[in-house]
Amino acid sequence: MKNCIACGEKLEGKGLLSFDGMPASSQNIPDAEEVKEDHGVSLNLHQCKNCGLVQFDCEPVDYYRDVIRSGGFTTTMVELRRRQFDHLIRTYDLECRKFIEVGCGQGEFLGVLAEFPVQAYGVEHREDLVGLARKKGLDVVRGFTEDPDTVLGENGPYDVFLSFNFLEHQPEPGVMLDCIWNNLTEDGLGLVTVPSLEYILQYDGYYELIRDHIAYYSFETLGNLLTLHGFEVLEEEMVNRDTCAVIVRKVQREEKKVRPVEQVDVSTMEASYGMIRDEILKLSDTLQREGKTLAVWGASHQGFTLAATTCLKETAKYIIDSAPFKQGRFAPTSHLPIVAPDYFHTEPVDAILIVAPGYTKEISDSIRSNFGENVSIMTLRSDHLETL
Predict the structure, then answer these.
(1) In this structure, what CATH number is given to the domain that contains residue 117?
(2) Were both Cys, which of 4, 104, 253, 345 would link to 122 (CB 3.0–4.6 Å)?
(3) pLDDT per residue over 209-247, tens digit each?
(4) 282 and 222 assigned to the same domain
(5) Number of domains in the chain
(6) What is the reported pLDDT for 73?
């Protein structure tokens, strides 16, 4: 019997949902040799009856300490981080203060933070990403929140910590928060983002579920976790449609009880899966009858899940993605080839399905500008496809 990763209570019962044939990973993307051994996995979703956290009962992916971003360089994400930093610094008078991003990847967001009058530091577990960040002139050290007493870099204590879509990967999120707490100044602040369970439930987005994200936080359950580990939530905001963002302040740790959280209702999620599967099948049949071809744009966890669990794995020609480290590899489970945008000119298709929540407009503009007006563009909107 597995225990809740947030509060330690046993996860009892058969769980909320089970999915078969799901991608085993969204970042260990197989190459031409590895794809021969790649196969789907079964995932079982549970909700803790004590603290309410929704989570998988599986082991984490082996790279949960690493931050591998593909969307960090997009205009959408850079503008979002710039707005968040500006608000945080102005609202809480943080000029000249010391910031540390925990899990900074190759410094995509630290580079944006460096535009502001603050001291920017980062810590990243994966060695090659640390090297890439340093080549950009960023102050990044190799490390991870292995235990509460781990010292993060040589410049602490820090006034502000940043954690962008990292906590949901952690099998011991409390240990990470305790470590951060110990590396902050008294009354230190933080900005934390995680994918939103509210968004998944509102839009029945089963395709948002993937093994890399071992936990699915709502504002309530994220608040419970932060409270248990010495942080007070000052602000909450839903950003980019699908992400919970909170600003927190370090407070004295004391024995606290979690706030009760209602049982989540996933009754419509399985129905949504059936609707999406049928709609994609109808689209594929129509294109085939007309002698037309289809590609997917977005080698994201959403794109991988959708391709693995629908007929896209048989009918799509390839998946387009602008991240170089994904190109030349194959989507987990579906084994569709992942190509650069320019590959379109080598093997044109008649229609492109965008599966990249938050970036749809940016991608559709790029398609029209670079591929012409004759390409049909569709996107996934919650439980249906929409023509753009």
Answers:
(1) 3.40.50.150
(2) 104
(3) 989 999 999 999 999 999 999 999 999 999 988 899 999
(4) no
(5) 2
(6) 65
Q: What is the pTM of this model?
A: 0.85
Together in a domain, 236 and 197: yes
> Quick one: 125 and 169 in the same domain?
yes
The count of other CB atoms within 10 Å of the CB of residue 264 is 19
Report the pLDDT averaged over residues 2-30.
Answer: 90
Specify burial of residue 249 (Cβ count, 10 A radius: 0-12, 13-18, 19+). Answer: middle
Q: How far apart are CA 108 and CA 110, in angstroms?
A: 6
**Rounded Cα distance, 244 and 249, in Å:** 17
What angle separates helix 301-309 from helix 267-289, to the nearest 10 degrees? Answer: 70
Note the pLDDT of residue 255: 73
Q: Is residue 227 located within the same domain as residue 279?
A: no
**235 and 348 together in one domain:** no
Q: Tell me the residue range of the domain where 225 lies.
A: 75-250
CA–CA distance, 14 with 242 (Å, rounded to integer): 27
Orientation of helix 219-228 relative to helix 173-182, angle to 10°: 50
Query: What DSSP string describes 128-178?
Result: HHHHHHHHTT-EEEE----STT---SSSPSEEEEEEES-GGG-S-HHHHHH
Helix (H, G, I), strand (E, B) or coil at 114: coil
Domain boundary among 191, 222, 250: 250
Under the banding of pLDDT at 50, 70 and 90, the label for residue 383 is confident
Element (H, E) at 373: none
295 and 206 in a single domain? The answer is no
Residue 133 CA: distances (Å) to CA of 103, 108, 116: 12, 8, 18
Give yes or no: residues 174 and 222 share one domain: yes
DSSP secondary structure, 93-111, as one string: T-TT-EEEEES-TTTHHHH
Interior angle at CA 204, CA 53 and CA 51, nearest 5: 10
For residue 163, is pLDDT > 70?
yes
Tokens read off for 252: 């004295």
pLDDT band of 254, cuts 50, 70, 90: confident
In a domain, 347, yes or no: yes
Rounded to whole angstroms, the Cα distance separating 233 from 25 reads 32
Given this model, what pLDDT does residue 188 score? 98
Burial level of 17, CB count in 10 A (0-12/13-18/19+)? middle
